[in-house]
Amino acid sequence: xSLSAQPAASLFIAGRPVEGQGDDLPxxxxxxxxxxxxxxxxxxxxxxxxxxxxxxxxxxxxxxxxVERGRILSRAAAIILERNYELARLETLDTGKPIQxxxxxDWPSGAAALEYYGGLAATLTGQMIPLGADWAxxxxxxxxxxAGIGAWNYPxxxxxxxxxPALVMGNTMVFKPSEETPLGALKLAxxxxxxxxxxxxxxxxxxxGAVGAALVTDPNVAKVSLTGSVPTGRKVYAAAAEGMRxxxxxxxxxxxxxxxxxxxxxxxxxxAILANFYSSGQICSNGTRVFLQAGIRDAFxxxxxxxxxxxxxxDPLDPDTNHGPIINxxxxxxxxxxxxxxxDAGARLVCGGEGEGAFIPPTVFADARDDMAxxxxxxxxxxxxxxxxxxxxxxxxxxxxxGFGLAAGVFTQDLSRAHRVIGRLEAGTCWINTYNLTxxxxxxxxxxxxxxxxxxxxxxxxxYSQLKSVYVxxxxxxxxx
Length: 481
What we know:
The protein is an alpha/beta fold. The protein contains 16 helices and 20 strands. Pfam families: Aldedh.
């Protein structure tokens, strides 16, 4: 079976594949480093061309009946689900994630977003406001051209999560995937055209930071939605602010998972595995600071160490592989440096370690302090830091002692305590007795340095639309003279 994944062209502009005219962009299979495709970056002129095409297509797209826009998204979702294996295999080649993950967690999640917003289309209405004899109403209108900038950990899911609410609202989009994972967005563009979407409504440009900067500052762009790190978010937010552009920022985290003594041990360990090691730990919402109440700590760590022995690292295309490689060597080096720093700081290595080559095994530190780098810095790899606490107030204060605020989780069989603790945690997305489930029906996003705005659910519509207020006078007009 060939590992080639060369697309028809590197970009997708105005309804057709277009070859980039910038630098080469090799796409490597994270498992063995082999080049599976070679793309070319967009030039500044090509970014402008894509934005101009999106601007030209937007009025007619917005004028279409919302239910018609919704039907196109729904058809695209059906196409994705029909081709799920083919798309999952491409996602595995693009990201290095095990195919047992990509079959259930990547394109299916993207299809769910398209289907959800397709069904929501006909409900996108304004409000009538009675004012006595007079009255007012609001219109919910599109923003115009939206720029989407994706990350490499869930590239196709992110493309769908950003495109679906934007497009159903009557906006058009120019999407730039991560230069590490450029292939899925091109497939999405093809599928949307096949589903009946007019040319120019969804466009794809490729490239590194300079391409992203050109996209964010293009005069046609009215909205920027970024998934990425906090440092990247700061730069993009500042650039977007120059033009008073709307923004959604889904950034990094160092999220707490608090496990009380009365928690179901097996479920809490399962959640810690999902919150730290799924997708080789490359998930922004991961609960990488696991606060263990003193009474459950030892049993929890013993059971976790036993469970991770079932990890199977290997070729991500092997359906038995359940732990894939790190996306690239630079990221692997960063994770290994963090692991060494944890050891040097005096934390106890329960299991795992630096690994070899592209692979880093599930790694657990215990006996850590809150001020250690492994407890303060986002590592974005399969590294969990266990911290011990005694009472509820202590756990909450320490959990909130970070500039991040993306996610949080609580495990306890006392539901009053669960809701009480969640109410005091400074995080935008929270779980009780589970972790990292992100259905499209539920808003997703962070607070503090972890972001602005929300993705998914009806809440995302607010971030891809603006309200126009209209006052209707039903009688005469009084004036002072």
